[in-house]
Amino acid sequence: MDFITKLPKTASGCDTIWVIVDRLTKSAHFLPIKETDRLEKLTRIYLKEIVSRHGVPISIISDRESRFTAHFWKSLHKALGTRLDMSTAYHPQTDGQSERTIQTLEDMLRACVIDFGNSWETHLPLVEFSYNNSYHTSIGAAPFEALYGHNDFITCVLVPTCMTPFKPPS
Prior knowledge:
The chain is an alpha+beta fold. It has helices at 39-54, 66-69, 71-80, 96-116, 120-132, 143-148, and strands at residues 2-4, 16-21, 28-33, 59-62, 83-86. The strands form 2 sheets. A 3-stranded antiparallel beta sheet has the order 1-2-3, with helices on both faces. A two-stranded parallel sheet has the order 4-5.
């Protein structure tokens, strides 16, 4: 778990991305937030986006960001039964998976910011989709495939807009 901060502000005021990576499948969530969001709001986002979709993690590795060392955050995870492991000061490699994911995300975001300016938040779900469907040599699959057991291919039928809608025979 880590943050990418000091991004260009979006229309909704977001200027930070909360990066959460599953160490087993390398699956990642990129959550747009405001750097000033309080811990209570981050907790609601965490429960909605992570716990409700994947369950309670066994352990979490995070940097020593003050929000994650707060009593409330520690109490929440004690109640959930999650072990909190803080990375060692001045040794970001302790949380190496997040650091590698952040480097990849920053590269992907540079392209978005160049193309889309301050609307990076709008495109973040597609960046997350792209990341989670990209092959990772460390697991021999894409994170989506490692998590769900199959590729996330969507079959689409492209129909020119000038055609009339298809009506099945009665």
